[in-house]
Structure formats: C-alpha cells, structure tokens
Backbone:
C-alpha cells in the first residue's frame, strides 16, 4: 500500500541524522531516565533520548482524519458510560469472579456511593488507540480500527509534541534525503498539540473547581509511580500547567497518599508537602499516572489511598467509574456485532455510525448468540487465523494469536472460556522504519498505533443528568513497534514514539 | 558582606529541590554529555544535568549593573584593538619567543594579509569575566574587577538562559524556604538573554553578508571539537538561529575543514555536507567553538584549516586578529597602571573611565618602569600575598598564587621572568552554595565569576576606518566554583553554572 520507505542511508547520512536526533531530543526534553539494564544510575541524574523513530512513519491521511473526527464522539460516549452506574454494575458483575482488580475498584465506588460523592465533576483525559486496517477483500480501502480505549493514565502526550517537533526539525535541516521530499514535507507532518491540549484539560477542571472556601492555596496533584522512567512525559504537562495556566502542581507518590493528604470535614482533599509541613493546599484535581494497574496495589494501604482520593471533593482524572468504563469488557460489549449498547450511550446516529466504523468486531466466548458464533470462529483453524484471543482480565499480556487459538482452547476447560474475548485481528499494511533506543539503532518491519487524545470535563449531576462542560480533541500520539513483537508499548522497551507522515492511499 | 546564605535544608526540602532540579534541567536541555569518569557511553546517547548550583548565588546588584554598563564600551574597545594591526604586531613581537601559538596565529594573519582580506566584516561574540572585589581598605565598597576578556569561543551562553530559568522555576514552585523570600524573589533574579542575544549577533552577521552571488543556499558553520561534552550549550544557539531567524546552521569538526570546505575563485567559502555531497552551501559566518587553544592544533593540517577559513570571504567569529586581541598580554598592557593604551582605543573619556574602573592592576615582569615595580611587589613576601603570577602563554593553568610567588621566582632564571605577568588578586566576598554535579551534591565556600556577553559586528573598512554596525550587550553568565580550587571552569569539572540573586550591599 505504501511506497518504498524509508530509504537506505549511507554512513554520512546516518551519522548526520543520528547526531542531530540525539542532540535535539535531549535539548528539548524528549527523554527518559535510562533503564537499569542500559546503565546503572543510583543518583537518578542520567537521561537518554526517548525511544524514537528516525523517520516519521507513513500513515494514510484519510485514516488520521478519520481517527481525529471521532474524538469528540468518543469523549461523549465514555463520559456517558462512566455516568451510568447501573449499566457498569452489569459489566462488573460478569467479571467479578475472574478479575479481582475490577471487583476491588467496584468496592471503592460502592463505599463512596454509600457516603455520597462529594464532587459531581469528572475529568477524562482519554486516548483512543487505533491501527490502520486494510480490508483483505478490498486492499484499496484503509480505515482505522480501535485497539483499545484508555480512560486512565493515558501516557506519552508529554513526549508526542516533542517527537513531531523532532521530525519537523530533521526535515528542516535536510536530514531526510531529497528523494523523499514528495512524501516528507511540511504539509505532511502534522503538529501534535498534546502538551498544550492535555494541560488545558487539567487547567479547565482546576478552574471549574474554583478557589478554596477556606482560603487555602490550591494545587493539582500528579499521582505517580516510583520509580518512573517516563517522568519527562509527565513533567512537560506540569510545566505547561505552571507556565501557561499559572497552576501549581505537585507530584505525589501513590505510596505517600495516606501520609501527605487528608480529607477534611468538608471532604476537601488537603495536601501538605513534606518540604513545607506548615503549608496546606486544597487539591482541585488529582491526575492519576499511578493506580491504573493491579501491580500498583501491593497491599490494603493502596486501596485505602484510592478510597481517600475517590471520596474527596477533588476532581478525579479519572473517577473509579471512569476507569472501569475503560476496561476491555466494555470495549467488547460495544463492539460485539449487533450490540445495542452504542446507541444507548450515543443517541446521535451520525456520531454512533462514525464510532462504529472504528470498531473491530469483538466477541464474548460465552453462551450468548454472539458467543456461539465466536466459538465457531475460534475453533475452526481456517477462520481462527483472522483473530486474537485476549484475557478479559486487565493488565495486558498473554494474548493468543491466530492459528494458536484452536489448540489453546482445546486444552482449556470450557468453563474457563468466558474469561477470554475473541477480537478480529486488525491487518495493518506492511511498512518499515528504524528505531533509536538505548543508544542502539534497529531497522525492520514495524506496526504503528495511532492514539488520539481527548479531554472531557462533565458534571454527573445530582439528578443523574450529565452535563458536558468541556469536550475537545487533545492531540495525537503515534507509537511504533517492531512487527515481530505482538505485544507492545514503548515504556516496556518494545517500541518507540513516532509521528505520522501523512500519505494519500 | 552577605547575609547568611543559603539555608540548611532538611531531608524533605533537599529531596524536593533536587528532584525538581534534576527533572527540569533535563526537560529544558540544561544538560551535558556525561564525562567518561562518570559513566562510559560509547553510543553517545546519555546526558546528565549540567553542573549547576542549587541556589542562585548572592551577587551585589551594583556590581551586576556595573558589569552590564560597560558591555558596549568593551565591544568598542576590543573591536578597535582587533582593527589595529600595527599595535597588535607590537604585542605579538614581544611574545613571539615564548608563545609559539601566538606566533603561528600571527603567521596566518600575515599570509592572508599578503593575499588581501576578502571580507572586511568581523563578528565578535565576546564575554568579559568579572569577580566581585571588596576593597580591603574599605569593605563597604564592592565593585567588579575583570578576570579576563574572551574574544573566541565564549561558552555557556547557551546554558545560561536555562540556569536562570531553572532558578526562577525553583522559586516559583516553593523549593526555596520562605525565610529566603526577602532575598530570592522575582525581582532579584534577572533573566539571561544570552541565547536569543548571541543568536541575534550571528544572525545580524549572516544578514550583513547577504545572499550568494552564485545563487547557492547560505549557511552558518559552527566549528567544533570532537568530542564535545558541552554540546547542548552550542545547540541552543543553533536552534535559536534556525527557529527565530530561519538561518541554516551546520556543525563542522575542526578536523574536517579541509575535506568539507573549499575556497572558490572569488574566495567564497563553500561547504559541502558529507551527507548531501551534491549540495553546496556558501558560508556566511564561521563561528569558532574550536581552534582557540594550542591543543586544537595537533599538526600542520589544523593551521592549514585555520588559514583556509581566514582567507575566505566568510565572516569570522572571530578573525585571527580578534582572537589575538583577547590574549592576556593585551589585557596586561591595558591594565598596567598609567597605561596610555586604553585612551588610544577608547577616546570617549567617560567610557574609558568606566572600563578602567573594572581593571585589576596588572604588571609585566620586564625591564620597564612598571616591570621594576612588579619585581619589587612579587619578590617581597608581604606584598606578594596580594598577587597572582600568570604565564603570558595562552591556555591557562600553572598560575602561582600569593606567598608561593617569591620562592617560585627565586628558582626561575631571571631571563625567563618576562614570560609571566603579575596581577593583583581580586578579593571576592566569602559566600557559600551547593553544587549538583555528576549526580553528586557538594556544599561549601564558593567563588562566583560573572561573565557579560557582548555582540559586535564591525567593518574594518578599506580605508582602515572602522565602522561599527552592531554593538549590544548579549546576556550574562554566572559561573561558580568551590573556593578551594584556584583554577576553574565548569567544563573542566571544577565548577557549575549559576545565576545571580541580586542583593543590595
């Protein structure tokens, strides 16, 4: 589908491109802390270029625009789901036996519900991830299909603006050979507004919270993990909040929530920085870059911490319900063929149709009608090659691909089958790129995943009637990984941050 | 002279300040490549925070303003010296036997002079370095005294803007304890405009050069060393040139001048980037960040390279004569008590008086009248304690301090004495700070050196009448080193970049 790309570089071209890439990335904070396997750094003072592609990957312009065009509809959809407790309860109840994590999150929700929520505003900084899908029966047709929808800790927005800046710089300084100029040029490289847009989302929530009734200074808390190698990604958002919006931010380790915050009698979340114990801040927004995965909750204190945040009057990004709305199970029930759920949450038919276009069919492996079809597709070696089997449990990993599916199911007691969903494989066009990571250069076939960020601030309303205060697209992310690895993610060391070079296909 | 400063931090305060410093510095390119002694990095992909002070060092406001107030006069002075071949010849002739380097530079000048210079414009990006001097007879009086004047490769301008940004950020996020607020506040931390101002200096020269008569694309060359750990300092200037002024820049290793450039029949300097051998650029400005020290010239090819640049029509920053104007010997003859030279180059009496105020007395150790006085001062153990003995030879190092001087001279044959100059020690006020460097934190007494950058573009004129086209102050640098080391320089590992916290004294 794509023209030959990228070109082979001779030694001088490679040296020019790489030395410029290495310097520009550090000079502009397109960086990560190095992995211990790369270099031991007890002082935490070293950094290296974030894993990054040498060239912007080719990406169909029509697909890029398709993904952007549904960003606001997705914000609408997921804010609706996150506001529908009754519906979400049904989802959770189906999973409660196979997924302790969801069950525990639900318990946090129930506890706060019993007490009554102190904050009706909710902030979503979402990211909808897509791959380009080429219809095998009509290879001229490319569209995006959704891989997943992230409602918590959507990362790399802080770096994405920088990657698009890097590739534009490399273009401007002639690091890309002239014969590429019909492909890579200023009009084919879209900027990513992810840093200013995500920061604006948080700033809008901060503003909507208002000032402290007690006259305390206010702040936004970034709830973070320790260690965090991807710290600069988060810092760029902080610096934009500080500089552009004059919003005070603090990083708080998930481990320190119980020590450093308290919920006062009016349920305000009060943060006391350890370095200024006599100063107290009222927290307007808690932005979770931790607490999204089971591994963040190693003992009960972490659940107590999550509860403390949830019951406070701070605006959560996200609330527990919003996090639950992002589970794979929700994606599955929306994307099951003939599902009635999409129309329920997105009554605008045009919007719903556009969103539906981005779904790859997903089936449950249960006793429903769709489940029966799924069993047939998954056990037949011929049809199975078009599918991937994914555990319903959150946390990723352990996917079963294509022809391995029938054998895997044969060995699995049928009572355990409902713990999996069957998803039609997205078939991305073949393409290649070169990745710079940990000081090493690797070239080969790659798969690109486009993420579109969305920011949404809504009021769940005392009357159960949702009111959307802010709803905007918030930039993009392109992540690229070698096509040999069927699991991925830049931070885990499998991929790189990238930016698209838009092409007509 | 100063109030107690900086405060002792408790563990939580230190952790807060340091973690913010480490992240902000990398996110904003306030970085260096790590020294091999710190970490081995064959791929050249690691970076670390530039050595930096945790607090902005106290600095008398009156001294800061004094140093800035003479910036334009110094530009005037040194452009005049660099335009006076006859006078400089006298200086060089005095040194030719003790300093091969100056002799070789002079030979380059003579060779081009014989052929005739192809470019009458010259660019100076200068930095005048000062320390605060407290008159021991009147300790209420603080003024700046010049340490040296740099006419070539004045470094750290690229980082200085960032350090001032760092300290302002740390102030804004409350990393400095409240009890300091009368000292550190937004009005006591001056911004450094060094990045935009130095870039503007180069851009003005680029513009003055004009377009290529042959219709070639034009560019500015940064002549650099390999390896260069302080690369981001240089890169920030490049990026400002690219972005703000739309000027194309290339880094060229001093070792590669003869391979990658040629001087055409019209003496234009033509650069052919190795990565695009079919593209030729006409060089408007050569900005030397290499070629300033004897160690850069390891064989004849380097002198051939320097000659190639000097005889070309590119604007040199600096020319050979401008580099020679920056030798210690020139500083000495200007600063010798009752010297007539300052008035010669700076006829404006008010300007000359202001510049004279910044001189610490410097004496030759020759047979002149001033030399006789110097011999007396240097050999008397009582008076020697107020002086430092410096070799006239360029390149730094091997200074003899205070009470070591008489013994040193006793062991040195008197015929070798003229190879040294005697300079009155500048007596800076005692102060302390904490430096973060190579992942380590060190606290103690420090000495601060303030550099004021100046940009000057002048036309030496066919008629020998100099015409100044641009003359402006170009930001500042504060460098701070431990007061135990009497040699210094951040890149060499002895000090840190800093920014001033201005105080009334």
Residues:
């Amino acid at each position: 589908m794509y023209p030959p790309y990228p070109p082979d570089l001779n030694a001088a071209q490679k040296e020019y491109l790489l030395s410029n890439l290495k310097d520009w990335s550090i000079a502009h904070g397109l960086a990560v802390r190095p992995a211990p396997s790369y270099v031991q750094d007890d002082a935490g003072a070293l950094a290296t270029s974030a894993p990054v592609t040498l060239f912007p990957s080719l990406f169909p312009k029509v697909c890029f625009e398709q993904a952007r065009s549904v960003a606001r509809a997705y914000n609408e959809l997921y804010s609706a789901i996150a506001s529908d407790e009754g519906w979400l309860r049904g989802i959770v109840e189906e999973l409660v036996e196979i997924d302790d994590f969801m069950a525990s999150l639900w318990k946090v929700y129930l506890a706060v519900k019993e007490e009554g929520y102190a904050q009706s505003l909710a902030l979503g900084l979402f990211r909808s991830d897509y791959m380009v899908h080429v219809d095998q029966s009509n290879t001229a047709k490319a569209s995006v299909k959704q891989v997943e929808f992230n409602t918590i800790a959507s990362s790399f927005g802080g770096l994405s603006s920088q990657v698009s800046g890097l590739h534009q710089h490399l273009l401007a300084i002639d690091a890309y050979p002239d014969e590429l100029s019909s492909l890579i040029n200023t009009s084919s490289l879209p900027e990513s507004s992810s840093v200013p847009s995500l920061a604006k989302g948080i700033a809008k929530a901060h503003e909507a919270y208002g000032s402290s009734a007690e006259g305390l200074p206010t702040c936004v808390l970034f709830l973070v993990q320790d260690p965090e190698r991807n710290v600069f990604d988060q810092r760029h958002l902080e610096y934009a909040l500080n500089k552009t919006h004059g919003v005070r931010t603090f990083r708080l380790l998930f481990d320190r929530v119980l020590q450093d915050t308290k919920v006062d009698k009016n349920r305000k979340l009060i943060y006391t920085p350890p370095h200024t114990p006599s100063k107290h801040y009222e927290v307007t927004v808690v932005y979770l870059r931790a607490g999204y995965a089971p591994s963040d909750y190693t003992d009960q204190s972490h659940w107590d911490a999550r509860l403390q945040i949830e019951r406070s009057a701070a605006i959560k990004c996200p609330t527990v319900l919003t996090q639950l709305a992002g589970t794979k199970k929700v994606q599955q029930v929306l994307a099951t063929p003939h599902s009635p759920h999409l129309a329920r949450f997105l009554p605008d038919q045009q919007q719903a149709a556009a969103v539906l276009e981005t779904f790859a069919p997903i089936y449950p492996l249960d006793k429903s009608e769709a489940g029966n079809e799924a069993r047939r597709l998954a056990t037949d070696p011929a049809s199975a090659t078009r599918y991937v089997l994914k555990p319903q449990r959150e946390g990723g990993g352990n996917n079963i691909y294509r022809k391995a599916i029938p054998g895997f199911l044969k060995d699995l007691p049928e009572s355990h089958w409902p713990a999996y969903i069957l998803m039609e494989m997205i078939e991305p066009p073949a393409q290649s790129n070169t990745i710079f990571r940990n000081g090493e250069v690797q070239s080969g076939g790659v798969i690109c995943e486009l993420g579109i960020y969305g920011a949404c601030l809504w009021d769940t309303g005392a009357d159960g009637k949702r009111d959307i205060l802010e709803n905007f697209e918030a930039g993009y992310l392109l992540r690229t990984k070698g096509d040999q690895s069927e699991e991925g993610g830049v931070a885990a060391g499998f991929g790189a941050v990238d930016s698209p070079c838009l092409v007509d296909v």
User: Anything to note?
Assistant: Chain B is about 35% helix and 25% strand.
